[in-house]
Write the C-alpha cells for this entry.
Amino acid sequence: MTTPAVGFSTTARRASEQDKLDGAEKLYQSAVALLVQDFGELKQKLVDLNRRMMGSNTIAALGRAYQTLKNLIIRNEGRMTGHEAQNTNQEPEQHH
C-alpha cells in the first residue's frame, strides 16, 4: 500500500514544480512586458529630445561643425609622421 502514496507524492511534487515553473514564466513575461514599455517610453523621449535639439540652430551648427571635424580627422588619419605630430604640440612661428 505504500506504492500509491509514493506515486501520489511524485505526482504532487511534479505538479508543484510545474506550478512554480508556470509562476516563473508569468513573472518573466510580466517583466519583459514592463521592460518593453519602459524602452518604448525611453525611445520616444529620445526621439522628442533629438527633434527639439535639431530644431535649435545652435545645435544644428555644432552638429555640422562636429561632422566636418570628424571628416577631416578621418581623411587625414595616419598621414602625420612623428615629426609632424611633434610640431603640432609647439606654438606656430609668427612671421613679421
